[in-house]
Design goal:
With 417 residues, the chain is α/β, with parallel strands linked by helices. It folds into two domains: 3-19 and 231-416, UDP-n-acetylglucosamine1-carboxyvinyl-transferase, Chain (Alpha-beta prism); 22-228, UDP-n-acetylglucosamine1-carboxyvinyl-transferase, Chain. Helix content is 30%, strand content 26%. It has 14 helices and 24 strands. It has helices spanning 22-31, 48-59, 85-88, 98-105, 124-131, 164-174, 190-202, 233-245, 261-269, 307-314, 335-340, 370-382, 393-396, 402-408; strands at 3-7, 13-17, 38-42, 63-67, 70-74, 82-83, 107-111, 136-140, 143-147, 156-158, 180-184, 205-210, 213-217, 225-228, 249-253, 273-277, 280-284, 293-295, 321-324, 345-348, 351-354, 364-366, 386-390, 412-416. The strands form six sheets. A four-stranded mixed sheet has the order 22-23-1-24. A four-stranded mixed sheet has the order 2-15-17-16. α1 (22-31) runs parallel beside α7 (190-202), α4 runs parallel beside α6 (164-174) and α8 (233-245) runs parallel beside α12. The protein starts with a strand and ends with a strand.
């Protein structure tokens, strides 16, 4: 099993080009199932979750070709509706094929999903909403057996809770439902905006009726398109925090700064110097880091996917900080590993009380999920000496060429078997 060896305390300097968004690519890949034509996608990141989703599409009958930096998907002969556990078990986004398969064929058998062990993340919100479009379902031996005897029929749906995955599944499904669907209390993450733009480019009829509400008028077919996926805002945020943690000087390129304005504002508050250009953020880390209290929230709030990375930074702040995790109930598994490096973090329910003024000590570490694993990399980058991070397959699910990108800006890091 591969490990990362990180030799810390070097200031990161230079520029990092941000890859395409994993979290935008996955629902867009699922949505290609609606098409019987050729769909070309550009700017997909080279990460394990994308490979898994493409394997899932292949198992359903999609024909996929890689041509240089493009993925060409042809669904003219795609007829299968069974998504197996073996392909869905490692990735939460596997459930996103349920909506398009039901919309296209009126039936589907999809395994309950896996992914990071950061909370229960039930799919009842997906299923309750789909049932309002006329879907009947049973869960048998870990599989959702779903069918729509009269096809999908538009309806008014209000989500009981803001859910990114359920919003994505319903937007895709409703795009082919008979009549109009009105979705309320939806998630409005930039990845969802990207999905809507993709569907509209294909010819779907989607209109905003409020800040968190959509009207979707179903269509029966879509056209052939080429579409570039947006940048990865979580990768961008991770490297901005890496610059602050190491008192570095980084230019983060190929981004849309206004999409990560919340993160930029917080980094400014804690003392980082930031200069914003059209598609670039230049950050210089400050030796003195100010404490701050933050809570995770649906977009445009502070993202749960950057909570672990921000915690590393706040360990080095001048005073105590508090992080409140309001999205997932089990997302502090990185805390034990950070405390082994000298951090003083106390968990009380969904709050992490982070004592400041910590200098991390190197250690051998164990990654527990995708974002926790990158937080350990950040802590190791600021520790004097050699740290070893085990189980980095979590890291490979969502960060493209992380050690190459970090080496390019001065980090001493290597992958070993």
């Amino acid at each position: 099993m591969q490990k990362l060896e990180v030799f810390g305390a070097k200031k990161l300097k230079g520029q990092i080009n941000i890859s395409g968004s994993k979290n935008a690519s996955l629902p867009i890949l699922a949505a290609t199932l609606l098409s019987k034509n050729q769909i070309t996608l550009k700017n997909l990141p080279n990460v394990k979750d994308i490979d898994t989703m493409m394997s899932l599409l292949d198992s359903l009958g999609s024909k996929i070709k890689k041509v240089k930096d493009k993925i060409i998907i042809n669904n003219s002969r795609q007829k299968k509706t069974f998504a197996s556990y073996n392909l869905v078990k490692t990735m939460r986004a596997g459930i996103l094929v349920l909506g398009p398969l039901l919309a296209k064929f009126g039936n589907a058998k999809v395994s309950l999903p896996g992914g990071c062990a950061i909370g229960t993340r039930p799919i009842n919100i997906h299923l309750d909403a789909l049932s309002k479009l006329g879907v009947k379902y049973k869960i048998i031996q870990g599989y959702v057996h779903a069918y729509a005897p009269k096809g999908l029929i538009g309806n008014k749906i209000r989500f009981s809770k803001i859910s990114v995955g359920a919003t994505e599944n319903l937007i895709i499904a409703a795009s082919f439902a008979k009549g109009s669907t009105y979705l309320n209390n939806i998630a409005i993450e930039s990845e969802i905006i990207d999905l809507i733009n993709f569907l509209k480019n294909m010819g779907c009829n989607i209109k905003w009726t409020g800040k968190r509400s959509l009207k979707i008028k179903g269509v029966s077919k879509v056209k052939e398109i080429t579409y570039p996926v947006m940048f990865d805002r979580i990768e961008a945020g991770t490297y901005l925090i890496a610059a602050a943690v190491t008192e570095g000087n980084l230019k983060i390129k190929n981004i849309v700064p206004k999409i990560i304005q919340t993160e930029i504002n917080i980094l400014k508050k804690i003392g980082a110097k930031i200069n914003i250009k059209k598609s670039e953020v230049h950050i210089i880390g400050n030796k003195k880091i100010k404490s701050i209290n933050i809570k995770t929230a649906p977009y445009p709030g502070f993202p749960t996917d950057l909570q672990a990375q921000m915690m590393v930074l706040l360990c080095r702040a001048n005073k105590q900080s508090v992080i409140k995790e309001d999205i997932f109930e089990n997302r502090f598994m990185h805390v034990a590993e950070l405390n082994r490096m000298g951090a003083q973090i106390l968990i009380k329910g969904n709050k992490a009380i982070v004592q400041g003024n910590i200098n991390f000590a190197p250690a051998e570490l164990m990654a527990t999920d995708l974002r926790a694993s990158v937080s350990l990399v950040l802590a190791a980058l600021s520790a004097k000496g050699k740290s070893v991070i085990n189980r980095i397959y979590h890291l490979d699910r969502g960060y493209e060429n992380i050690e190459k990108k970090l080496k390019k800006v001065g980090a001493k890091i290597r992958r070993v078997n």
